[in-house]
Amino acid sequence: MARMKFLCDADRCIECNACVTACKNENEVPWGINRRRVVTINDGRPGERSISMACMHCTDAPCAAVCPTSCFYTTADAIVLHDKDLCIGCGYCFYACPFGAPQYPRVGNFGGRGKMDKCTYCAGGPQADNSQAEYIQYGANRIAEGKLPLCAEMCSTKALLAGDGDIIASIYRERVQKRGYGSGAWGWRTAYRQDVSV
Amino acid sequence: MRAPLRLVLAAMLMLAAGPVLAQSTLPVTDAARGTVSAEEMELQATLRGDIIRGRISIPDSRAANLIQPEGREWREFHNVTLAWIGGVALIGMLVVLVLFYLVRGPVRMEGAPSGRTIQRFNWFERANHWMTASTFIILALSGLNITFGRHVLLPLAGPEVFSAATQWGKIAHNFLSFPFSLGIVLMFLLWVRDNIPNRLDLVWLRAGGGIIGHEHPPADRFNAGQKAIFWITVLGGGLVAASGYLLIFPFFFTGMQGMQLALLVHGTLAVLMISAMLGHIYIGTIGMEGAFDAMGTGQVDYNWARAHHALWVEKEVVRARSTIDGEPRPVGAD
C-alpha cells in the first residue's frame, strides 16, 4: 500500500487559491470552513513564499492521540480520517494539530462547536464508499475511485503534489536538482519527522 | 517524571509571559531567493516554541498559522503529564483514605451526645453548599470522562454509547459551570471572614487536628483543616472556573497558546481539586461521627460542637445570652 502525503513546492506556488476553491466545491465544504488554505510568509519582502496547507495526514497523528472519544482512524494508505458520529466537538484536536487543520462549524450557544471537519485526502469517511451519507458528511471519495485529491490534481503550476510519499519526494528532488534551489517540503519535519534533502 | 515536571514549570513561566509569546512570530532571517528553508524554519520554531505565521486571504486569522509545533507539547501534557498528575492525585488519595479508615477508623464523638443541638449552618449556607457540591460532582465526573474515559469507559461501553454519553457530559459540563461559579462566589462572601488564617491554626496544625491527633485543640468557627478546604475551593474553584470560561468561549479572549495554557491550568487544578474534595467528603461523612449533621440538618450536637469548635461555641453562647438577657428594660419601654 502507498503512504499518502502532500508536498507543497513553495517555489512554484503562485497563491492562486485554486486548490482552496477546488476543495470547497468538490467536497461541498460548509460556509466558514476551509479544509485547505494558502498561507504567504514574508509577504511583500524578499524570500516571500506561499504554501498551500491542509491536514498533512501525520505519522502518529496528534489529533488522534488527544481525541477524548478516539474517533480517528488511519486507512491502509495512511490517510488520517475521523468518524463524525463519534466526534463531540471538544476542540482538542485543534489545540494539538501543528497545521491548524481541524475546523468546526459554529452551532448553538457560547462558542459551541459542531462536529469537526477536516481534509479527508478526498477519501470520504467511515460510511460506505461513495454513498450519499458519506458525501453529505465528508464530501467526495476520489480515492475509492482511484483518483488523487482534487486540490493537487487541479494545481495549475503543479506546486501541490499528492500521492505516495516516496514518489512525490523523488519528483520534488528532481525539480530541485534541475532548477538549483528549493525551500524544502513544508511541514514534513513536523508531520513525518522527515525532510526532503537533496 | 522529570520531563513532565519541567513542562509544568515551563507552563508556569508561560503563564507570566503568555501575552508576549503569543504575539511573537519568526523573524525573517534570509532574504534572497532560495534561502528560505522549510526544514530550518520548522526546527527553529520547534526549539523556540514559536509559530510559523504568514498572511492569509480569508477572514479566519487563526488560519494564518502555518505550523505550530508546540501542539506536540500540549499533546505531551494532555496525554502524559495530566494523566500522571490525575492518576497519582486521585488513586493516591483513595488509597490514603482507605488505609486511614482501616487504621484509624472514624473519629468518634467524645462522651455521649448531649441531646441539645446548636445551629452550625443556616438554610442559605447549606443550600449554597449543596448547589456547589452537586454541580461539582457532575463537573468532576464529566471532566474525568473527557480525560480518562477513552481508556476506562470506552472499552466497556462501546464507541456509540460512550460518544453519546460524553457529548451529554460536555453539555452538562458547560451549563452547570454557571451554578457552580455562583456557588463559589457566594461561599466566598458567606464564609471568608471566618476563614482568615490566624495563630490558632498553627496550634491546631501542630497538634495534628482532631483527625490525626486525639485531642481537639481549640478552634473557632472553622479549624485550620476546614480553612484549607475553603481556600482550595475558593481559589482553586475560581481559577478552574476562569480557565473554563476561556475554553467555553474558544478564541474569544485569547489565541492558540492561551487556549492551550487554559486547558493545562484547568485540567491540572481540576484533578488536584477533585483529590482534595475526596478527602473533604470522607471527613464529612464516614470519617467523623457527627460531622455530617452540620451540612445535613444544620444542627450539631452541643457536645460535638464544644469538642471541635470550642471558641465558636463560647462566642455563640455569649451572643445568645446577650440577646436573651440584654439590658434590663422597664416594662412598656418598647
From TrEMBL, chain A:
Keywords: 4Fe-4S, Iron, Iron-sulfur, Metal-binding. The keyword Membrane does not apply. It comes from the Bacteria. Coiled coil: none annotated. Pfam families: Fer4_6. NCBIfam families: FDH3_beta. One of its GO terms (molecular function) is metal ion binding. This is Formate dehydrogenase iron-sulfur subunit. Residues 4-34, 78-107 form the 4Fe-4S ferredoxin-type domain. The keyword Iron applies.
